[in-house]
Amino acid sequence: GENVEQHPSTLSVQEGDSAVIKCTYSDSASNYFPWYKQELGKRPQLIIDIRSNVGEKKDQRIAVTLNKTAKHFSLHITETQPEDSAVYFCAASLKTSYDKVIFGPGTSLSVIP
Amino acid sequence: NAGVTQTPKFRVLKTGQSMTLLCAQDMNHEYMYWYRQDPGMGLRLIHYSVGEGTTAKGEVPDGYNVSRLKKQNFLLGLESAAPSQTSVYFCASSSGAATNNQPQHFGDGTRLSIL
Q: Which residues of A touch B107 (CB under 8 A)?
């Protein structure tokens, strides 16, 4: 079936450094790629998303890049802060009988002060 | 504006018991989803609904049933709970389809333990 792979599963960075999380997807019809952040014990929350007709999108310290040919997309966080520590999930839309997204397994990011 | 509200927040069941998880949204969203979250496995879709009166199976539907009798509510039922259903359950809603770039809004989750 369709799936989304995500790497790395855990990531530790020093405060102020950059963090990069990479995802690959299998459904060539996918056209919407959201990223969610989940703090410990909290709900997942959308932090940024990108459409298939856009190669890059930025929002302050976070950016997402998309390579449709290679079927992969990445989340970039610059100048990391301790409050960036969380689990990050990528997702990709699936064009089936009803539209939905499939999530990657998540990346646990720790920012060390 | 409460967004997506899940009840209960915590529950402990014995194997074989049944229960219903309630999800309510006040955003007039058409789409609603039930996920389960297990360590290292991300969010897996159980069932979803694209409108009042409709339901569809997701990735892991076995052992669960759902109903969407009212647009604002989406119920998840466990007919005969099993220890493998111990998980955190999240409900989500969106105004439209994912391919129309509609993000999902999540509830706070229900932590369910089956003994």
A: 43
